[in-house]
Amino acid sequence: MADKRKSDAGRSAQVPEPSDDELVTLARSGNEGAFSKLYDRHCKFVARLGYRFFMRREQVEEIIQESFIKAYFALGDYQGGNERSFVAWLGRISLHTCYDELRRQQRRSERSLGELTEDEAAYLHLQLRDSSTNGNIEGTAISRDLANKLLSRLKPEDRLILTLLKLEDLSIAEIAGLTGWTEAKIKMRSHRAQHGLRKILKKFL
Amino acid sequence: MWRIRQNRCEVDQQKLDRLGEKLLEALEVNDNDIKIAATSPFLYRRIRVRIESEERRITEDFGQWLALLNQARHAVPLMVMIAAIASGLVWYTPKPINPSSTQSGIGVLNGELTGLSSEDIMASLIGWDERKEQQ
Questions:
Q1: Residue B76 touches chain A, beta carbons under 8 Å
Q2: What is the pLDDT of residues A72-104, one digit of tens each?
Q3: How far is CA A80 from the centre of its chain?
Q4: Which residue does chain A place closest to B26, by CA atoms?
Q5: Boundaries of every domain in chain A
Q6: Burial class, A185, CB count within 10 angstroms (exposed 0-12 / middle 13-18 / buried 19+)
Q7: Per-residue pLDDT band at A7 (split at 50, 70, 90)
Q8: CATH topology for A18-108?
Q9: A140: how many CB neighbours lie within 10 A of its CB?
Q10: Which residue of A has its CA nearest to B41?
Q11: From A44, A50, A140, residue closest to B35, measured CB to CB
């Protein structure tokens, strides 16, 4: 009995995990389990991306939900190919979902979300003044909430490009591939985004 | 003096850029938060429900189109018959001799009845006046 169990375990260890492309093929043919597996594999990746732009857990869950629904209905367009192509494809969908949500927020004029409380403004001013006198910006402590409030004052496309450039360390060409924008537009936008960010911070200096 | 001001401006810009980067770094989220969001209960279930409802909607839309096409398919012979009758009526209806008689009531109101010109009407009026004087 023990031998049989051992041989079963050995056999299951030998069975390789299906690749993303194989799972996509199965999901296309209506295999619910295959899509569920794709979700399990890449859910954290989408959540990480969502947290780059949104603070609240519910918002990130919404991004995960929308991204996977869009991905499900776009499975027919997925071409497959190299090892990481499904991740790249899903990343593109998730990024567009985040961008759409950022734009929706701006349209709903959720500016109030970007409003700093008096305490926060005073704290930021103090931190900036201290760091400018000491020359030690690295020691400045900025909370996630405060960072999010300040960055929400940027235009959605500016924020998107800054995040991809600085946080994800992507090249201009890679961002162009992800967003579908031209490299010239991305260069121009990144320049404007930097300028916009400086302008926002200068107010507190 | 100008150079000093320019240098200070550059230093300020560098500081602001470094601070901007710190601001973006502050958005880094720990793995635990990511895990909590990703493993949120019923999240996958919610996705499945949305997918199913969307699929149902698409199927219903498609069904409506099919029903419409089916109705149109049934309506085609009827429409062909009506068109044939209408064209037959147009073909076999005798043409009016006086084209002005087919004119609408608007023509009557405008004094265009039976093709009389304004000169004819004036002449007949004058003739009527003369006849009255003679009497």
A1: no
A2: 999 988 887 765 589 989 999 999 999 999 998
A3: 22
A4: A144
A5: 18-108
A6: middle
A7: low
A8: Rna Polymerase Sigma Factor; Chain: A (1.10.1740)
A9: 19
A10: A61
A11: A44
**What Å distances lie between residue B85 and B72, B77, B96, CA to CA?**
20, 12, 20
Say yes or no for a CB contact (<8 Å) between A137 and B46.
Answer: no
pLDDT digits (tens, 9 = 90+) for B16-39: 888 788 888 888 888 888 888 888
Closest Cβ opposite residue A68 in set B28, B36, B47: B47
Mutate to test the interface with A, among B15, B17, B47, B54 (most CBs of A within 10 A): B47
Minimum-distance CB partner of A147 among B26, B38, B50? B26
ipTM of predicted complex: 0.73
pLDDT digits (tens, 9 = 90+) for A130-171: 655 555 555 556 677 888 888 888 889 998 999 899 888 889
A202 contacts on B by Cβ (under 8 Å): 16
Domain spans in chain B, listed from the N-terminal domain onward? 11-91
Q: Residue B103: count other Cβ atoms within 10 Å of its Cβ.
A: 15
pLDDT value of position B20: 81
